[in-house]
Amino acid sequence: MNEEDGVFDILHTTRAMRRLKSDPIPEHLVQKILKAAVAAPCGGNRQNWGFIVVRDPSIKRQIQILYQKAFDEVVGPRYASSEPPPGVTKDQYQRQHKAVAYLTEHFHEAPVWIVACLDFRPSEGPTQGILKPNHTSGASIYPAVQNILLAARALGLGATLTTRHSRHGDQADEILHLPNGVYSYAIIPIGFPMGQFGPVRRSLSGVVYDDTWDQPRK
Which domains does the chain have, with CATH numbers? Predict the structure, then answer.
């Protein structure tokens, strides 16, 4: 396998791994993942990001309670009442629902969380001023989150992007002792997977267009 094939193999086998073992993760692997995170692009190259490595069981448990609450309020009922998305069978959708429910219940048992944050506090220098979160703010953190997912996959670790805690974000950020002006954008639970990686198969049909939205690519 050449280097290019290796990259594409990782891209096409990095799927949401929601069933994770509680075995500890060596610190040198966590460091590799964090270095991959800060290699990502950031809007305006401001690098106003921050990453909290959470291992403390009591912190994880407090946030898991909020995570469960959001599941009970929104996620569970949505799965129960929604039709499967295009290209997904009812059986596949139900398996996904079960995996989401499993992660919800065992969220705090993942040995490591990486919480991806953005810092909007006033800065100094030529670009000084107060930043304000808006609809483009995620562009400054989600590339780093994707690097975390890809790096975890390359190291044989399972991970998934989840933002559900943000439904009770103020409480979660308080538990994490985030200062005013700093917000959590994602929590990535990481652990050795119980299942197998990929492959991820998705069709381009119905989601890729030529020039304008009314010209689906054939």
Answer: 23-121+133-191 (3.40.109.10)
